[in-house]
Amino acid sequence: MRHSPRLRRALPAGAMLTAAALTLAACSGQASGDEAADGPVDLRMVMWSSNEAHHAIFDEIADAYVAEHPDEVSSVTFEPLTGSSYINALTTQIAGGDAPDLAWLGESDAAQFVRSGALYDLSPTLESTPDYDVDDLLDGALEVWSKDGDIYGYPFSNSPFGIYVNQDLLKKAGQPDPRDLIADGDWTWDRLMEVAAATAADDDAVAGFQTVVDPYTAWNNALGAMWMSWGAAPWSADGTQCTFDSPEMVEFFDWFHDQIFETGAVPGPGEEYDFASGQTGMMLAQLSSSASLGEDFAWDFVPLPAGPAGTVPVVGQGGVGVISQSDHPEIAADFLAYFTNKANSELLAQFFPPPRASLLTVDTLGAAAPALNEEQIQGTVIDQALEAVTKPGHIKMSELGDPVRADLDALWVPDGDAKTVLSQVCADIEPIIAGG
Amino acid sequence: MATATTPSPAAGRTSRRGRPGGSRPARIDAAFGMVFAAPAVLGVTAFGLIPFGYVIWYSLHDWNPLIGQFHWVGAANFQRLVTDPVVWGSLWTTLLFAGLLMVLNVTLALALAVLLDQRLAGTGAFRAVFFSPVVVSTVAWVLIWNYLVASNGGINGALAAIGIDGPNWLRDPAWALVTVVVIQVFKSVGMNMVLFLAALQTVPGELKEAARLDGARPGRVFRSITLPIITPTILLVVMITTIGAMDVFVPIQILTEGGPGRSTTVISYLLYRTAFEQQDFGYASAIGVLMFLVLFALAALQWGTRKKWVHDEV
């Protein structure tokens, strides 16, 4: 058979394209072959911690589960996806057809994962697990992890926000100890900022108050635990109406703006300070931040102060759920029930405050934060966790983050006007959240 | 019995025209060429052409991997793209970023190359100094600069020492983009400097000498002799710098996250946020197609106009 010259030139290129396509097809074929395999399966959970001690506890629980269920599960792998882009990395795995079986999620993302159907319904599994004792879970702890009465995630870490205090810096600035202010009934956000401003006043290398993450980019994680004390919320309870422009929210942002540009209590945008290095008077953070604090300076961990709407204890949560697109959701749900049962919750409590009332004791949590004393654990962690509300997210949280951040940037200048900026925020996000 | 062999007409034509595929050695050469080119062709196909085909396919769908949603929407993503002010704002920011970076980078690289082409003591050490950022991890480089350009960082500290109140480099919309450009220029100028240096060393010394004998001053020698001869390298540098600038991502992600406002939201960063934060992979793919078209147009423009300014191009 004789081919035209053009065809002869095209044939090698076509052969190469075909070879490349076949190579890719062969690669994907291997994956699908694994899915169809019978026998015990390998489970994989992604998590944002690479802490070796966390992994040791997780592995200990997983090894015990595998030993008890050799016919169902051959191994459980805990894969750390660290960094600020954790959710993006998780989404990439799902998009690439390589969804993990289980995932660790924060409370801000819970609503989106639960309500979009990305998580598998755990209720049947948890209800059929002997001694799981769902009634032991704190009121409200499962709120953001539930939909229509069914449970889609378990918040194994239920950690209250509090205020870390650098006692040395406050003392040096001649400021009162926050514990004295608490005793006097004078522990308010206004008073906190007065102390912070005075602490930072005479030293450019010292900041008065900071949040554990940057308020100018991570607005919800940084400020969400504060504006609740103003009775403010970014959107209505059902998530369908923007309330950034509500009087309470405007009042809160006006106040926070003043702390940056009027009193100097809060470092401005672009300024870098580190509480653990002794550069900041006070910091809003959770229990886990105590792990990075040594004995370089005297410090304390006290409950959140009161705002215009009173004192509102707030928890941030780390939960675990089964990804709907997992190859083995039923087996993964069974492992999750084992991973979070009462006995294993006590093991996890070495690092994560549990949402179980029976485990909220000084002895249990003392192991989680050995740097904290009994008064700090009881007053700032346990007492707060029992009454706390969970920092809310939104079903479209991932779509809201950037537009709100971009609009709020107009506020983070000396002449920024909260009312104008927050009206613009609502104008921009209402089309997104309309219809929830 | 002896037989006479008559060449076929086709073989005769092949031979007369000297076509490479006509003789056995030429066919062997062609086969070897194919073998050597195969890895590159396979790589470009597997990791370039096929994925780009998928991107076009995805851009015609509404795809949210979080919930396993993937359905055909035709040109809807492109219709949305045409009316999306955020996309066009990002495109303008990207062109501004690329233009600034290209001009600064090429000018500085050429100036450094000319300086370091002189036979002076210590030029080897300076070449190493200027090239060293190229081999530093981009993330490490950007993180260090993040501290330096903080409003209470090292640069403003140094400026304050001489009585200057420095700006908030990354938080002031008027400065943020320029700051990122400068950080990126310092990171990559060494590579272009080396390319220019290599080009400068190919300029025949006798041509410059002849010009000098004719009375040309150094500036005139550079403009009329050196610059025209290295224009092929300038074309190469302009093209790779422009393409690299249009793809910029890491400095934006680490330094500004696209802010303040959207003043540093370049198109590649918008694509990333749309896909991986908002899980809108179909729309992100449409942005990717737009990005490809813009890059293709810029590269075509540079390539198409080369005959007017590149030496020896006909």
Automatic annotation (TrEMBL), chain A:
Major subcellular location class: other
Keywords: Signal, Transport
Species whose genome carries this gene: Myceligenerans indicum
Family statement drawn from the similarity comment of this UniProt entry: Belongs to the bacterial solute-binding protein 1 family.
Lineage: Bacteria, Bacillati, Actinomycetota, Actinomycetes, Micrococcales
Name of the protein described by the UniProt record: Sugar ABC transporter substrate-binding protein
Transport as UniProt keyword: yes
Entry's localization field: Cell envelope
Keyword Flavoprotein found: no
Signal sequence, renumbered to the chain: 1-25
